[in-house]
Amino acid sequence: MSATATQAGTTTAIYVTGGGVAPAAPAWWMAAAGAAVPFAAAALLRDHFAFAVLAAAAAQALFVVSWLLLVAGGRPSLGHAVPYGAGAYAAAVLARHVSLDAGTAAGFLPAVLTAGGALAGACTGGVQGALTRRLSPVWVAAVTLVTVTAAHGLAAMWTSPVMRGINDGGTAIPLGPFPGGDRAAMWVGAAAMAAGVLCVAAIVRSRSGVGLRATAHDPRAAAALGFDASRLRLGAFAAAGAIAGVAGALAAQFAGRVAPGVFSWNASVFVAAAALLGCPLAIAGPAVAGYVIGALVQLADVTADVQLLAFATVLLAAGMRDPQYVLTPWFLWKRRTTPDGNGIGRQAARGSPAGIAGL
Amino acid sequence: MMPGAGGAAPPLLCVRGIDVRAGPAWRLRDVAIDVQAGKAVAVLGARGSGKTALLDVISGFVRPEQGRVAFDGRDVTRWPPHRIARAGVARSFQNAAAPEGCAVVDAVRAAAVGRGLGHHAAARLVAEALAATGLEADARREAASLPPDRLRLLWIARVAAAAPRLALLDEPLAGLAPAGAGRVISVLRRLEALGIAMIVTGHDPEALRAVCPRAVLLRDGRIAAAGRLADLARA
Lengths: 359, 235
Description:
Chain A has helices at 28-44, 48-72, 81-97, 109-132, 137-157, 181-205, 207-217, 219-224, 229-255, 265-278, 284-299, 304-321, 345-349, and strands spanning 2-8, 11-17, 173-174, 257-258. Chain A is mostly helical. In chain A, the strands form 2 sheets. A two-stranded antiparallel sheet of chain A has the order 1-2. A two-stranded antiparallel sheet of chain A has the order 3-4. By secondary structure, chain B is an alpha/beta fold. Chain B has a 6-stranded mixed β-sheet, with helices on both faces. Chain B starts with 12 loop residues before the first strand and ends with a helix. In chain B, 57% of the residues are buried. The chains are: A mainly alpha, B alpha/beta. Chains A and B meet through strand 1, helix 7 and helix 8 of A and helix 2, strand 6, helix 3 and helix 5 of B.
């Protein structure tokens, strides 16, 4: 085990690596394995209730995967529910305006609604990115969390005439049943999740992904390498928003309605908790974690308050374990240690002399 | 005559009349320097003399109050850092943090990718940069686990992998033991042999003599002396 200390901004950290061998970039076989999980689950089940649960879980997993683009850029948002909810609302509003002939073109409707959701998600994600482009990661988290609350308030106040046909607390918008039923929804969800995992893995490995990771580590050094940090961050928010918008649009179509509850702290904390449990270094891990958690929450009928408590507990536990790296691409549940084997997480976060040896 | 000037060819880098203010004080005052293509110039001076500030101006991180920076005949004074980097100016930092969770080869590849090179060209340059710096054996090792002298070589490998026309190296020898400094010097000579122009900052003129025939001495943000490094070292 080896160690070195570096100055990162105003804080000092010791990085310890097991054997000094760096983890490789997310491997394609891992991404492919993660993408195969919903198909395997779908093939094994025959129950209609399970179909609905797995369809919704796949949408949740896609939502989690989209957030990883922000983590890769070192700017995790706690307001990722905004593009997700925007996608859901866009699908709902479009569903009430698009009049495709049910007999000839109804099969295109989910694609149209999902494309609308992607566009709405990209726009709202882009707005979040523009709002936070010059902020530190802590303020990114704070400001984006505020945008969730604002979006929730706006959604709850929305009483446009297109909202008639309300069936949930006076504010929900119905979309109607998914064409093809729950079984089709499950397969569409599985395909969307698989495509999302592979898409995010491809982005992270692309030139933009390399730039995002370089920017996350040191924006100044990244600029000196030729990466436009500001543009990359904005692009990451827009791309993550587009994928979250797809997830929201699919979730709304699978559920048959959308309500202001999609803009909730729960959703924002859920993605962070699933990513932490699945290891943010990989793509497939958080996707599978999101899929499993999404399914369990529905199967056990866990209330929103209990969900929030559970997800917040995961974040708190992670924060206590590895405070400086929680919600970063480098989070490890295994505590970082000094060469003498002492844990240094908290000392390093406080800038203790224990973290200044080495360089 | 400015350091590096002397031929009929126009200089690769031409810095004129640079003023940079930091609060009430001047960090740089009327600084001028030329660098010819493929030549190395040392910028010497005590801590706080303005060496890093000069590199910051050339690489676009600091905009001067006055003056002009021309690279390859183009005025780059107001260009953002990433655009200057893409034009062919690579930069290393004195106190840069090691990339966390990143293998040496990936850290070097980022430089080639950032320059906008294609996959094959980037792979070739990464291999050449690792070979030139002697980091081939450490290619799969975690960058943050490298000892200080090899970490310094990693930053130079990143500069080399960017295929620059001009490399700005901020204190590449600072804090290194003689053996480590010697290794870095031999790598810098290899880069010079590849035709990469360099500005190398440092405190010790003797250490840079093997690489930089010409030098500028900065004192309190002003050019105190300029000429052959051997002459400056004697003075």
